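As a warm-up, study this chain.
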Amino acid sequence: MIRALWTAATGMAAQQLNIDIISNNLANVNTAGFKKSRVDFQDLMYQTLRSAGVSEAQGVQVPTGIQVGHGVRPAAVQKIFSQGEFQQTDNPLDLVIEGDGFFQVLMPNGGTAYTRDGSFKLDGQGRLVTSDGNPMDPEITIPAEATSVSIGVDGTVEVSLPGQTNPQAVGNLQLVKFANPAGLMNQGRNLFSQSASSGEPLIDTPGLNGLGTIRQGVVEMSNVKVVEEMVNMITAQRAYEVNSKAIQTADEMLSTANNLRR
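Now compare it with the structure written out below.
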């Protein structure tokens, strides 16, 4: 009975974490560039009461053994980098990556972060920056006198200036790709950072070496599907209830054993 109590307790703790991850997914259903997470579970160690294949008698082997599991544990919380839905904004500074890749962002400490959120803005110097004011890498500066901004699928940034008939190029956007994007570290604020598991960044022109292309005037929304998350939440809730019922049942069985009389 005691084993059942602790085993069911691990199930309740695992489903609590599952609900925490689902709640975060639902909270960010309208967050641009957000990627949903999924919890992966593993069963715990087993107690072997009888090994399979042991000899019970001369020439006779036991076909199956007896092993009792001790519950479950979370093994990983994995980011799912599937493409989110596109939202047309017609804002020339809103960008979306069609395919794989991340935008590069310069951080105040001199490091580099990565994001799928393409809702960029201009700061007081005319640089393309995130909502927190962090500039893109490489920096792109739009002249104050520019009348329009055009960003091509290959990341070429051109502006129209008064008195000039031909657009003038002011920079080129570059994208980054990782061998294992699920290994990136979440930094909050729609940003990721490199880790040993993600591998080294591959920096190249949009559209080359497996990188996606750029579309202007569009924002990538969260890839969270509300119906799917609601079903996952119901499943996790029922699993939590079943594990709590197992604890209650084990407790009742212990109570029955304790109340036995001669």
